[in-house]
Amino acid sequence: MVIDSQISKLPDNPHLEGYAIKNFAQSMLGDIVKGGMKMGKDIKEIKEFWENCFKRSNIDFKILARRDLSDIIERLNQYQVKRVLDLGCGFGHWSIVLSKAGFRVTAVDISSEAIRRVKTWANEERLSIDTKVCLAQEIHSLMDKDFDAVICNSVLDHMTFADASKVMQGIKDVLKPGGIAYLSFDGLEEGEDEVEKEFVVLEDGTRKYTKGNRKGMLWRFYTNEEIRILCKYMEIIEFVEKCNGKREVWVRRK
Fold first, then answer.
1. Distance between CA 135 and CA 226 in Å, rounded?
2. For the chain, how far is it from start to end, CA to CA, in angstroms?
3. DSSP conformational letter for 205
4. In this structure, are strands 247-252 and 175-185 parallel, antiparallel, or unpaired?
5. If pLDDT is split at 50, 70 and 90, which confidence band does 169 have?
6. Which of 55, 159, 235, 241 could form a disulfide with 252 if both were Cys (CB 3.0 to 4.6 A apart)?
7. Strand-strand pairing, 247-252 and 235-241
8. How many Å separate Cα 127 from the centre of its chain?
9. Under the phi-then-psi rule, with left for phi > 0, alpha for psi from -120 to 50, and beta for the rest, what region is 92?
10. Whole-Å CA distances, 59 to 9, 56, 64, 155
11. Other beta carbons less than 10 A from residue 45's beta carbon
12. Helices 70-78 and 93-100: crossing angle, nearest 10°?
């Protein structure tokens, strides 16, 4: 890390100029790393979970494309959307449906296996969908900054609050002024078996599962207030809470 290497050049001797600055900087850097997803081991473990998740899945994921997204498409058309970023695209069913509806879609996911499946599906449907393997937290630096809309469906639930905040800043950065984003958040989970319930709780309340098929997965329940805090730099157009506890939020870049 560039910042870390620069800090290391400052003196360790408390009597020399720069020692206090080094102490303060190391403290701040530690807080930043602790609050978000650390580089290295943590990211590797999370990537491995999602790679394995998509590799072992034997469901007919194309059935997912039958979901009615007419309300989503209507909202996108209302704001004259042309280019859409499907962030955390998974199997790509939203990307496929939106591409068929005439939008220019870029599909992004942390999993190379997910992106491979999206490419294959798009080719079978003769659709032109741009794809990229990318951490959601890094879209601000890797993506074009001219999207009319971002779809972020059940993505922010799978990271800490600090990382979700980074993603929201990234979403704002890649949107054109006046661009919109769709966000969805899960309700409290029910019906888990005893193995799937085994997890540790991180400092901010995020669960990190330790056993079963979910081993390595992060999941966090966001309160309505926390969601509003995540959206504080955007205009909330609509905030809907479903009967199952799921929240669907539309925001607009000011």
1. 22
2. 33
3. S
4. antiparallel
5. very high
6. 235
7. antiparallel
8. 24
9. left
10. 53, 9, 10, 20
11. 14
12. 60
**How many residues make up the chain in this entry?**
254
- AA identity, residue 208: K
What is the residue whose two structure tokens read 């449907």?
Answer: 125
Which pair of structure tokens corresponds to residue 58? Answer: 């034997």
- Listed by start position, the domains of the chain span 2-34, 38-252
Residue 49: name the closest of 212, 237, 254 by CA. 212
User: Which backbone phi and psi does 222 adopt, to 5 degrees?
Assistant: -95, 125
Report the mean per-residue pLDDT for the chain.
83
Partners of 182 in beta bridges: 151, 250
State the residue for tokens 């909202």.
75
103 vs 89: CA distance, rounded Å: 15
Q: Which of 111, 208, 224, 103 is nearest to 160 (CA)?
A: 208
Strands 218-219 and 129-133: unpaired
Q: Say how far apart CA 223 and CA 239 lie, in whole Å.
A: 13
User: Is it true that domain 38-252 has CATH number 1.10.10.60?
Assistant: no
> How far, in Å, CA of 150 to CA of 183, rounded?
9
In which band, very low, low, confident or very high, does the pLDDT at 2 lie, cut at 50, 70 and 90? very low
pLDDT of residue 71: 97
The alpha carbon of 211 is separated from its chain's Cα centroid by a whole number of angstroms, namely: 23
